Amino acid sequence: MRFVFEILVAIILAVCSSASYAQDCSSDKPPSENCRMVGKVKVYSSENPVSTSAGIRLYLLGKASDIVPDKNATIRVLNDVLIMRLGYYAPRNIIPMSVHFEITSFSTKPSKYEANHKLSIFLDDKPLLSENMEMRSSIVIAEILRLEMKYTDFLKFTAAKKITIQLGETEIELKPEEVEILNDLNKTTKHLNYPPVFAPILFCSR
């Protein structure tokens, strides 16, 4: 029981360690990489090796204060919480093949998404994708689900103006300020480069 509690506390600390939206680069102490802001999104870059990364973290449902650990090795969830993380890493500033999409759930119902963890995303009421997320962990009321999103879908997702996300039976239309942050994340990719194209070597026989 204590082991499960320690894992849950570790998840909660990760959940509560930062705000829903990025503050600014001055909050990095000490900065391990160069940091700049694109709207409300932090963008990290390094020169050795050259790389760029950026990501966002949004509370789709609930807030950090809805998750209450107590001294009796239990955790109370006051309201369902869904936290979405979306980000990319671009070594050598080359466009990645896919980006990391993760949802952390805290629910009053144990293993809420264990039986149905299909993720569907709609842009302007038109389907973008519908895939089963990978259940990475399911501990009583805490679940972590992941999906590798194709980069082309990522660009469409972050450029949209109306976004609806459905996980299992839970459907959420993103708020305008959340869509704006996704649009800022899209802008961080403008300097990324396509991978070099190598012409095939042709062997000619005489």
Layout of secondary structure:
Blueprint: H1 2-16, E1 34-38, E2 41-47, E3 50-61, E4 67-69, E5 75-77, E6 81-91, E7 98-106, E8 118-123, E9 126-132, E10 134-139, E11 142-150, H2 151-159, E12 163-167, E13 170-173, H3 176-187
Antiparallel strand pairs: 1-2, 2-3, 3-6, 4-5, 6-7, 7-11, 8-9, 8-12, 10-11, 12-13
Notable features of this structure?
disordered N terminus; disordered C terminus; 4-stranded antiparallel sheet; 13 strands; 206 residues; globular
Largest sheet: 7 strands, antiparallel
* Radius of gyration from the alpha-carbon trace, in angstroms: 19 Å
Number of domains: 1
Question: Quick check: average pLDDT?
Answer: 86
| Poorly predicted ranges | 1-7, 16-20, 201-206
What is the chain-wise order of helices and strands? HEEEEEEEEEEEHEEH
Helix content: 10-25%
| Strand neighbour order, sheet with most strands | 1-2-3-6-7-11-10
Q: What's a concise summary of this model?
A:
The chain is α+β, with helices and mostly antiparallel strands and 206 residues long. It has helices at 2-16, 151-159, 176-187, and strands at residues 34-38, 41-47, 50-61, 67-69, 75-77, 81-91, 98-106, 118-123, 126-132, 134-139, 142-150, 163-167, 170-173.
Please characterize this protein's 3D structure.
There is one protein chain. It contains 3 helices and 13 strands, in the order αβββββββββββαββα. The N and C termini lie far apart (74 Å). The chain is globular, with a radius of gyration of 19 Å. It has 206 residues and is of the alpha+beta class. The protein has one domain. A hairpin with a 2-residue loop joins strand 1 and strand 2. The N terminus and C terminus are likely disordered. The strands form 3 sheets. The chain has a 7-stranded antiparallel beta sheet, sandwiched between helices. A 4-stranded antiparallel beta sheet has the order 9-8-12-13, with helices on one face. It has a two-stranded antiparallel ribbon with strand order 4-5.
